[in-house]
């Protein structure tokens, strides 16, 4: 997972050891993977924050500690291994699991943002999404194995939502209701491509699930009830820029129900056409790309 630490940072850096530990110090312009595997800095600019990685003499990581800058020590506490470090970001990409555009807590006021909670090894535990009014809407809950690798994460929802409205490529309107407290469990392969999504209630009772197959040009999504009976499927075609050009929906018998096509026009316009079961256009709209729902 790529995690870019975006914090402002302190003092010269040295490599030293204790009786049972080896301590390395890293600047905060490194990704989490680089903190664990990269080379430590010989020095950083004075009065800048940094991460302090402590290893057992065997080379195994003990913990990662965040040291705030001198100017920031009154506002941001030193992160100790027993604490949960919280970092603030403007963007979170669940497909690549990447946090971008770090901001301060003060800068979150009046804007949508994400709060990432890290454990003592620098791994992301949770990522909370807040809207412009400061209300939490959902939380990404990460699952890591003993090697610090992950093949799934959960999204816990706090309000009634519709998965289709969140991602029209993966999900279909036929089966996408989410109620408060429910969880969408994403499982993905080693390249970060989603293989399945299971929707469970707060007691982890399964309600429905999706399975996906994909290549560079086509994504196929199939959706099932909890008893594994097929509800339907859809196929998404992409252009060379990885933008969807057509979504075709099928019933449980693989008979076409309807379709949507997307034409990317000049001047930031997009033409969206609705097709019936016979493939005939029944509606066509031209919208600004930013207004596409």
Question: What can you tell me about this protein's structure?
Answer:
The protein is mainly beta. The protein has helices spanning 32-37, 163-166; strands at 16-17, 21-26, 50-56, 61-67, 85-93, 98-103, 113-118, 124-130, 136-143, 152-157, 161-162, 177-178, 183-188, 194-200, 206-214, 218-225, 230-238, 244-251, 256-264, 269-275, 281-288. Strand 3 and strand 4 form a beta hairpin. Mean pLDDT is 80; it is low at 1-18 and 29-38.
Task: Return residue spans where pLDDT drops below 50 for at least 5 consecutive residues.
Answer: 1-18, 29-38
Q: Could you spell the SSE succession in H and E letters? A: EEHEEEEEEEEEHEEEEEEEEEE
Widest sheet: strand ordering: 6-5-7-8-9-10-13-14-15-16-17-18-19-20-21
Distance between the termini: 29 Å
What fraction strand?
over 45%
Mean pLDDT: 80
What is the tally of helical segments?
2
Determine the fraction of residues in helical runs and give it as a percent range. under 10%
DSSP summary, beta strand count: 21
Main β-sheet description: 15 strands, antiparallel
The class by helix and strand makeup works out as: mainly beta
